[in-house]
Amino acid sequence: MPRRGVDERVGKAGLALTYVGIGLLLLCIVLRGMATSRVPWGNMYEFINLTCFCGLVAAAVVLRRPQYRALWVFVLVPVLILLTVSGRWLYTNAAPVMPALQSYWLPIHVSVVSLGSGVFLVAGVASILFLLTMSRFGQPDPDGAMARIIQRLPEAQTLDRIAYRTTIFAFPVFGFGVIFGAIWAEEAWGRYWGWDPKETVSFIAWVAYAAYLHARSTAGWRDRKAAWINVADFVAMVFNLFFINLVIAGLHSYAGVA
Q1: Residue 36 near residue 94 (C-beta atoms within 8 A)
Q2: DSSP code, position 2
Q3: CB 11 within 8 A of CB 49
Q4: Comparing 12 with 166, which gets the higher pLDDT?
């Protein structure tokens, strides 16, 4: 059988397995909700599961074309790392959430933030790959395994468009999540904004994504400079997820881990 035919069959099998994994993750979220008798995103373990699911669904929509199939590997790497960390170190037994989280704003605020964060994950991966294709690894006739992998990716401008379009979608979604959180804060704590560490870093990350969108449409800042801003934004989101939740004490310290 020709090499291309083997690659095509392996690619289709891998994609089918990925879709099965997405379905199993959804089943995990549903079963967690049944076990807790509530919406299953009241701690970091549950939030990461939901965010990864949103990112995988976003990838399934964005990468549905056959020529984008190779990008799945790079999306799955951070997702699998997050799920491993979540299941290994952040897992908590099914239980009711604390009184402060027993509000109808919990499913609204957290689900919107998770959707935005999941799509930002796809955008961050696309920008990282764009920078790799623009580096020496993406040049003609490079040497090394990394160079051969990069050569199988779509062209650099395609990756840049994927990053830009996914960020355009995720930016207002995440912004609404921040707004919903402020409304919930007013109901729970009597103020819309208190510069809590979680609130502050989330707002900074949102403004940073606005800077990326502005840079992406500004002459002299497109391509590499804008992509670096997007990668920095992605790092800020990861920092906000782990460091702020686990290290810095605040009103949003609901990680659910000891």
Answers
A1: yes
A2: -
A3: no
A4: 166
Burial code (b: 16+ CB inside 10 Å, e: under 16) for 104-126 equals eebebbbbbbbbbbbbbbbbbbb
Q: Rounded mean pLDDT of the chain?
A: 88
- Give the Cα separation of 254 and 249 in Å (integer): 10
Task: Kindly report the pTM of this predicted structure.
Answer: 0.91
Tell me phi and psi for residue 42, to 5 degrees. -110, 0
Q: For residues 169 and 16, give the distance between their C-alpha atoms in angstroms, rounded to a whole number.
A: 26
Alpha-carbon distances, residue 119 vs 30, 86, 126, 138 (angstroms): 21, 19, 11, 25
Largest Cα–Cα distance of the chain, in whole Å? Answer: 68
Does residue 256 carry a pLDDT above 60? no
Q: How confident is the model at residue 257 (pLDDT cuts 50, 70, 90)?
A: very low
Residue in 119, 102, 103 with CA at minimum distance from that of residue 50: 119
Q: Look up residue 72 and give its two tokens.
A: 């799945």
Degrees, nearest 5: CA angle 246-251-256:
45
The residue type of 75 is V
pLDDT tens-digit readout, 210-229: 999 999 988 788 889 999 99
Q: Return all residues near 158 (Cβ < 8 A) that are at least 6 apart.
A: none
Write the DSSP symbol of residue 137. G
DSSP 184-236: HHHHHHS-S----HHHHHHHHHHHHHHHHHHHHTSTTTTTHHHHHHHHHHHHH
Q: With beta carbons less than 8 A apart as the criterion, state whether 119 and 54 touch.
A: yes
pLDDT at residue 98, rounded to an integer = 79
Q: How confident is the model at residue 250 (pLDDT cuts 50, 70, 90)?
A: low
Q: How far apart are CA 4 and CA 124, in angstroms?
A: 30
